[in-house]
Amino acid sequence: MRFPQNSGSFGALPILALNLLSRSALAQVVPPAGNETGVLAHAFELGSLTLADSRWGDNQNRTLTYLLWLDPDRLLYNFRANHGLSTQGAAPHGGWDAPDFPFRTHFQGHILTAWAYCFSTLSEPACREKAEYFVAELAKCQENNGQKGYTAGYLSGFPESEIEAVERRTLSNGNVPYYAVHKTMAGLLDAWRFLGDEKARDVLFGMAEWVDARTSKLSRTQIQNMLQTEFGGMNDVLADVAHQTGDARWLSVAQRFDHEAVMAPLERGKTN
């Protein structure tokens, strides 16, 4: 296969060129504290690969343009409204992020991750600025929980009662609240580890504490019943938090979301 080439001073380089001579972008700013044993392969650090002029590079440029176009205040609209803060005159989104859509704020975590990846890969300062502003405003939402009667650490674009409905298995409005919470936590984790944003770390830990507090009150049977409704990727993001911090507490919380109806047959070698 012939890869698209560029015409740099080092001659023809493949589209995914290892940038070994000049690291123009940053690697993970906050490395994981967790020990890795038996790992034979690791992902490339974001800053170690460069896209040359090509359709792939064009796609990256289009994505960057989109990320820079996004208005953080519009992305914050549902968070602020739900946590009792001014929406700063921003216009709400429509569609799947409309103020009346069940799982609004489910994609903002993806955007936060994209801004963090953008800066780590391209050193684009505007991506960092948007991410840090977004995180700081999320922190204000979380800090206002007492005014709304929410439990400390909760953060989302819909009332905490939606989580209670998942626990009771009475949710019927099409929402997938843990799915949305998972995405926000994953975005905060990436802002912490790729930007070194300690505010993102603090908000993330607040959310993790909230998850621990809620699920620790439920019996194993109650949790397994809850998982039949929905749980997003909570075990995934909490396991990532455990790896990043080296704190086994978060792995224990993650394992509460292991769905036995799925996991137990797999352990017995059954796939259907």
List descriptors:
two-stranded antiparallel sheet; 6-hairpin_glycosidase_sf; Non-reducing end beta-L-arabinofuranosidase-like GH127 catalytic domain-containing protein; mainly alpha; signal; Beta-AFase-like_GH127_cat; 272 residues
General description of the model:
Strands 1-2 form a two-stranded antiparallel ribbon. The relative contact order is 0.12. It starts with 15 loop residues before the first strand and ends in a 5-residue tail after the last helix. The radius of gyration is 20 Å and the shape is globular. Helix 5 (125-143) crosses helix 9 (198-216) and helix 11 packs antiparallel against helix 12. With 272 residues, the chain is mainly α. The protein contains 13 helices and two strands; from the N terminus they run E-E-H-H-H-H-H-H-H-H-H-H-H-H-H. Helices cover 53% and strands 2% of the residues. It has a domain at 54-209.
Q: How many angstroms separate the termini?
A: 38 Å
Q: How does the helix and strand content classify structurally?
A: mainly alpha
Computed over alpha carbons, the radius of gyration is: 20 Å
Classify the helix fraction into a percent range. Answer: 40-55%
Tally of DSSP helical segments: 13
Main sheet summary: 2 strands, antiparallel
Overall geometry:
globular
Strand ordering within the main sheet: 1-2
Q: Strand portion, in percent?
A: under 5%
Q: Low-confidence parts lasting 5 or more residues at pLDDT below 50?
A: 1-26
Query: What number is the mean pLDDT?
Result: 89
Order of helical and strand elements: EEHHHHHHHHHHHHH
Number of strands: 2
Protein name: Non-reducing end beta-L-arabinofuranosidase-like GH127 catalytic domain-containing protein
Domain Non-reducing end beta-L-arabinofuranosidase-like GH127 catalytic: 50-271
InterPro entries: 6-hairpin_glycosidase_sf, Beta-AFase-like_GH127_cat
Keywords: Signal
